[in-house]
Sequence to fold (780 residues):
Amino acid sequence: MRAGLMRALEWFKARTGLDAAISGALDEPVPGGARFQYVFGSVLTFLFMQQVVLGILLAFYYSPSAADAWASTAYLNDQVRAGWFLRGLHHNGSSAMVVVVVLHLLQVVWAGAYRAPREVNWWTGLAMGGLVLAFALTGYLLPWDQKGYWATQVATGIMGSVPGGDPLKQVIQGGPEYGNLTLTRFFALHVFVLPLVLGGLLAAHIALFRRHGVTPPANLTDAELKKKTQPFWPNQLFLDVLAMAICAAVLIGMTVHTHGAELFAPADPASNFVARPEWYFLFLYQLLKYFEGPLQIVATVLLPGAVAVTLFALPWFDRATSRRASARWPALSVVGVLMAAVTALTALAITEDARNESYQKGRALAEEEASHARTLALEGVPPPGGIAVFDNDPKQKTRKLFKENCSTCHTIEGRGGDGAPNFDDYNSREWLFALVRDPHSKRFFGGTKGHTQMKAVPVADASDEQLHEVLEYVLSLQGPEAGTTDAAMVAKGKALWDSKLECTSCHEVEAGKSDTGPTLAGRGTPVWIARVIRNSAEPDLFGETAEMPKFADKLSPEQIKALADFIYSQRAAKKAAH
Amino acid sequence: MSGNRDLSESAESAESAKSAKADPHEKQPEDMSPEGESRRKLLKLGIGALGCGLAAVPIVPALGYLVHPLRLGPGEAGAMVPVGKREAFGAVPVRVDLYADRRDAWSRETNVKLGSCWVHVRDGKLQALSTSCPHLGCSVDYDAGEGKFKCPCHRSAFDLASEVKGGPAPRSMDSLEIEEKNGLVAIRFQRFRQGVPGKEPV
Fold:
């Protein structure tokens, strides 16, 4: 059996040249011996491969369309087993790549590995660094959540603000505004174009690396290097794999600690989300704050462009005759200053946000909204997708019901008609006060045809103080729903009611009794409101003057109750807002 | 010129790298010694172990992740869907589309087409037969000329009693639960496993 297996293996090796390929890949001498500072390239290759595997896994559930992107991401994150872990690892993997790219770059600069004859290797490396950022930029739009949507708006906005950049912006985002084509394009770039280009550059980068070998410490003589030479396999590869394992352990730790990647509420073009880019773009974001108006191009194009040109030209800028770090202080200080500037800008962006109260508030609100949306998404997202998830909210359903049945005449939350009383702040003390002083204003019965009987109560009949006392009494008639009422005011109000004012000629205060005006017993409670919705023409309600359609047959008892509770809650809503 | 100096320096190191490659063992005394050999063996073991660990990081969770659809279980039979008045149906089969609410992975759809069935009266009884062929799920048609149900894909044929009258179908057409109340007909849509002799819901 074993012999047969070995023979099969030999046959396969002979036909494919597999062992020659493997030994060709592994039998590389490392002059000066294996070192930990050589691991960064291998770690990046590992991270890239892991991102590819994770990306393919995510594509098993993700759907790149404006209707489905958020819902499918929420589904794979919150409902598919281990989905949160794989997505979190992919998300954190991008951050890890940025970090290791920077470490790799710093090591290369410190060792002088950008110098002749490795210039092309340096350039392919820089290009790949740029691609890692392009991956990040195209990737975090894909969930179509608030963060991805708004942060990417800024990026494409910058593209459009550059002279001649508008056509480019339109091509990349697939039209004058964000939509399905933005997602399909970013998806195609993120999962096909960028990986292919990066893969090609990586192959060239590794081939060039093999051609020129590692750049050993400059202080060792050739003789010492030869003496200390170790093979790549297994000496250097062990260090490489060890570094990969450390990196993977950190990634797993981060992912488990935060239970995966953040997913904000679905993209809402009408919201005012506090947009911030991923942490590795914060320095560019911060830079934008310093250049206003026509100078913006300095921060968006000129400075980043100058930095890129400087880095690409570093092999020529560096005129030192020796590769020793001490001889290359101009090149090292250029890169050092760049890194310091990027770090400082990032730190500024973070501390400014930490001190910015409105940002912190907006952020907390966004997180609350996100968890609400994701809870609602567990029931399934209605076909329009994205923000339609909020239709699952019972309150939203009631709002819709109100819009369909009531808003032609009534206003709520600032929207609706003025053919009947406005329900914003409905039944608050202020609302009642204004009603009694001027029942025929548009806010109350001014828009109706028949409700003309009630007379306004002017200051001459009741001072503000007296009216407040009367209304406290009227409120108290609601029973427990009135909340806390001022007992002394209620007593004074009742006295005024019985003696001074003429309200009693139309309004009853005892349950079951009817007069020409609606009863004030329990007036304004959910039960009373539900009765009005069912049939406002009941004798103890608006009687013959009623104009409102009867909804008893049109809506179910549950719907009527939901509407009544919703209208009743308007007073509480106003209170909570204060 | 500094450029020349650079090139010569690196040419030299490339040279040294090449010579090392030509004969890797000559310059590696450490690896020739027994301690070197055992150390190398340890490193190789370490690479194998760590490598397997790294591969496991995405692969292990991916197993549960990819087979998630298995956890969704057999679909529940939907609600009874009203399809029309009793008078609309007679001895000649009528094709009826069935609409109902549905969960489809992340989306929740209301009143979408789930499938269809043939409805006709046989021996005084209403009968609903799913149009999904029990062979491989093509949509079974009714041939009024021959008075038979025929599958357009693999020539399965069924009589009005739903029995197989030719072709590869392993069982008769699947009947659906049908109900008549106050002159209205309602049907419960359901899918069944294809290609097996028994009628099992999926």
Notes: Chain A has a mean pLDDT of 92. Chain A touches chain B through 61 residues (CB under 8 Å). The first helix of chain A runs from residue 2 to 16. Chain A has two domains: 28-373, 393-577.
